[in-house]
């Protein structure tokens, strides 16, 4: 019996992935670039236990038995295939590639918040499976088969997902651009927005964009390659202003393409757009690009900024987006209190309370890691979920 | 002394104008197509009085003296130039091209509602000036100098504004595609949305799009020419479904390009997007495209539909967008009462009251016209605004 527990991070794209050229293999129409967030604030946790005694594969999600989705099955199959290749001709071959697996997974943040939980989840699953089945080498292409953007959560720091050119997807992998230590001053604020509108799933939205948008292909072939080179350079040179501007422009273009989709896929709401206005106003007042926003397939904003600006920015956000209840409004890395300068004149507009649910303060972090503490396992000795105690 | 009073219509673009290649001459980067709305419901009204005794040009807006904007001056200058060319070498040349003008203009709908008031206003101004100074021939290029889309309000029915190719703008004119009588079953519902967010002006938004959007040029050169040909054919063939689909797609693409602008120009709000969802749901339930939306540089929707569907659509809208006050909620052409079929299951969602201010029901109409009744003049014998009595 082998048991492995791993943590894996969320990643936030700054050059967006939108549109597949192969639905089955999850091959994208353009490269994308992301920042991996620290697992100290947000993570997925997965325990994989494999045993010759298990009768079948079982999946538990938040400690409840859950059906094995086709995507999870694809990842398992691919890991077993690699394990089997590894074992060929080896002595002491116990045939572990045939052992069944019990998998238990959860996130420490609400799945419903639309915070890229599937990317952390599949990166964690694949990392834990690879360790359990003793598979080495690139795992990003296996994570990609679970959920495209999950391949970027396999590394820390800044990561590039190469679209690749091969039909079988073998070169559609993620690579690390720079480790988290390269740019330690970067901070991230996640603004979780209250939202009532019904959602368009990102998978179906993306598919509809490929089928109907007359702008998507132009973006993928003419805009993204240029932006990718520019932002790579900005990341390498710690050029925050260029990094921030490209990040904002690429977020805008993702949502632009979604609106050009038929029927349109609308992810940002009035609060999201108010955040965009706030960021541009703040940068204008400061006379330089201090703050960047990016939005994925939901209304929540992810802001990039530098450590030295966090206290002022958070104080400003609290003023423009007052909470219903101060308690637990700012989560994650502690933010120093700051009294705003009187001459920081903010854009007026309705100071309605409760437009944001809460804010998470985090930073760039490392890729998936194994937890060696047996207490951390989500499964007990029999392969069933432990009772939740916390 | 010569006095002329004219009415001119609003027009609603179905292939959108967005982006100038020449800011001064107002030359667009693509052709656009619009429907001219009946002046029975919405119109601009302008009285022009010219006299050898007037000392200077004066402009009154809603009967209040207003400063002569550069755009009004450009129109006046162009009309006088043509008048002077006309008069050259003629007998009885009184030199009326040198007479000063008093101009009084108003709309019968709120300017603030963002309902293309400037297009009706400049079309009316130019028509009245042309009649007063006895100028004949195409006036659309003069109206264009006032406000680009005003050139399309110079004709009734469906109208095409040709972008033209000449540097001096001489071929950037409007022409009628078909008169209003060609497709009499078309009806229009204008949904005036409650909005609190601050606005980006359409002139500055458009300019910013030209400067920053990486998708706008592709739209103008690759998407619009194709759509223009398709919608021209649909209009000529009374093909409502094709007309409706292209109209919706082109509205979406306008707002898509606005979002790809940096900083983004956002005109639609959550209520606008709820209207979009409503239209797609309604069409889905009906199994055919009964309803089309289009949005300009503001949150208000303009819906196209056929006369036979008006009663049901209005009853449905009243249910999904209940008014704060039933009184005066539906304006314009009378809508028959209709009790909704029980099996018309509408998309759920918040049935919040007051999201729409009111609805105007109108149809396709004729171009500008002169009113021969002296009572209709907005200026008295001395050239000053009459007191408002209604």
Automatic annotation (TrEMBL), chains A, B:
GO process annotations (BP): cholesterol biosynthetic process; isopentenyl diphosphate biosynthetic process, mevalonate pathway
Annotated pathway: Steroid biosynthesis; cholesterol biosynthesis
One GO CC annotation: cytosol
Domain Mvd1 C-terminal as annotated: residue spans: 188-369
Organism, as annotated: Nezara viridula
Claim: Lipid biosynthesis is one of the keywords in the record: yes
Pfam families: MDD_C (PF18376), MVD-like_N (PF22700)
Chain's role: Catalyzes the ATP dependent decarboxylation of (R)-5-diphosphomevalonate to form isopentenyl diphosphate (IPP). Functions in the mevalonate (MVA) pathway leading to isopentenyl diphosphate (IPP), a key precursor for the biosynthesis of isoprenoids and sterol synthesis.
Protein keywords: ATP-binding, Cholesterol biosynthesis, Cholesterol metabolism, Lipid biosynthesis, Lipid metabolism, Lyase, Nucleotide-binding, Steroid biosynthesis, Steroid metabolism, Sterol biosynthesis, Sterol metabolism
Family: Belongs to the diphosphomevalonate decarboxylase family.
GO molecular function: ATP binding; diphosphomevalonate decarboxylase activity
Catalytic activity, reaction form: (R)-5-diphosphomevalonate + ATP = isopentenyl diphosphate + ADP + phosphate + CO2
Domain of life of the native organism: Eukaryota
Enzyme class of the recorded protein, top EC level: lyase
Enzyme Commission number: 4.1.1.33
KW Translocase (keyword) present: no
Residue span, Diphosphomevalonate decarboxylase-like N-terminal domain: 8-174
Protein name, entry field: Diphosphomevalonate decarboxylase
